[in-house]
Design brief:
Length: about 350
């Protein structure tokens, strides 16, 4: 799209409305708000997608909230319940991952739900870039925490005798802080560069939220540097975490190969949940990448794929960890049983002798 060329694809907006909308956004400061196109062409199917997204969002918040509540690893923040069986570094990292997943989905899904109920969804320029930053930053932070969890599994299996002395509380806090810092470092440069670019119209973001590549197409000027910086830090984020996770599991594999059968089964159970989550996360990310660059996918299909990708891992994480981990499953069951209404005990009839 050439800079300054007006090509809005909103069937619900008249030509006069479109012209006035763009004129209001143009001035000395250029664009002052963006219009999120979203899935405007679904018509009556929008209510179906709205219901599905709302259900997924409720389950994401509910499932991850339960994990945070039942695990004592976050007790220093929440003063939650304590269970000695769950007081381990792995569950501390799992709590942080659940927290990231909740905020990650909250940056986009509520906005998308609002867009499905309205004919036009607008967002301020500042709000757009805040949403863009937190969405990318939380995505990278989630992968960094998965990398930290892979290292935790490596230490637990390859150095079990030194596990408690290595994974101390200060080390856990340092690893989580490093994951958040890594996410910020990989996200900030591309977002800042995009924010400083001139936007003089059109102002329609052809996505369900302020996606970086979609917003970049609206820049009035050359974006070659933006593309290079974005690709560079994206590769750093994906390759670095991927290499560390793969290296951890290669070392774990060598260690498992020297174990007896019973120890191997225990090691597999220890890693199965995390390995499943990592596989789903990277497989979904690869599918989104391919769908954007290969084949004749319509914009609606690409948006739906991106939406499902952004909600898939946060939706599946609680179920995978609770199904694959007996201790966590039992703790959740005990916690939920405390909220059940007390059973009414039948009273015995006392007969009096006349």
């Amino acid at each position: 799209m050439a800079p300054g060329l007006l090509t809005l694809d909103f069937p619900t907006l008249s030509t006069n409305h479109r012209s006035s909308s763009v004129n209001e956004t143009l001035g000395l400061g250029g664009v002052t708000f963006f219009i999120i196109q979203g899935l405007t062409n679904l018509d009556e199917k929008k209510i179906i997608l709205f219901s599905i997204l709302l259900l997924i969002y409720i389950m994401v918040l509910g499932g991850n909230s339960i994990i945070i509540y039942v695990l004592p690893s976050m007790s220093f923040l929440l003063q939650a319940l304590t269970d000695p069986k769950l007081n381990s570094p792995l569950y501390f990292f799992l709590c942080n991952l659940s927290f990231v997943d909740m905020i990650y989905t909250t940056t986009t899904i509520p906005n998308m739900l609002s867009g499905l109920l309205t004919d036009i969804l607008t967002i301020s320029v500042l709000g757009c870039f805040f949403q863009m930053y937190f969405f990318i930053q939380l995505s990278v932070t989630g992968r960094a925490i998965l990398t930290v969890m892979a290292y935790d599994r490596y230490v637990a299996i390859c150095n079990p005798l030194q596990y408690n002395s290595i994974m101390t509380r200060p080390v856990r806090l340092l690893l989580v802080a490093g994951a958040w810092g890594f996410g910020a470092i990989c996200t900030l440069p591309a977002t800042v560069i995009a924010f400083k670019r001139p936007y003089c119209g059109p102002n329609v973001v052809k996505h369900a939220w302020c996606d970086l590549s979609s917003v970049r197409r609206l820049v009035c000027g050359d974006t070659s540097l933006d593309n290079i910086v974005s690709l560079l830090f994206a590769m750093v984020a994906l390759v670095t975490t991927g290499v560390f996770i793969l290296s951890s599991y290669i070392l774990i594999g060598f260690s498992i190969s020297r174990m007896v059968v019973a120890q191997r089964l225990k090691a597999f159970r220890t890693c199965s949940a995390h390995l499943t989550v990592v596989s789903i996360s990277y497989a979904a990310a690869s599918f989104v990448y391919i769908s954007y660059r290969v084949g004749n996918f319509s914009s609606e299909v690409r948006i739906i794929v991106s939406v499902l990708y952004s909600a898939l891992t946060p939706f599946l994480n609680p179920m995978i960890y609770s199904l694959r981990n007996k201790e966590l499953r039992e703790s959740i069951r005990r916690t939920l049983s405390r909220f059940r209404p007390a059973a009414v005990l039948p009273t015995k009839k006392i007969s009096t002798l006349s």
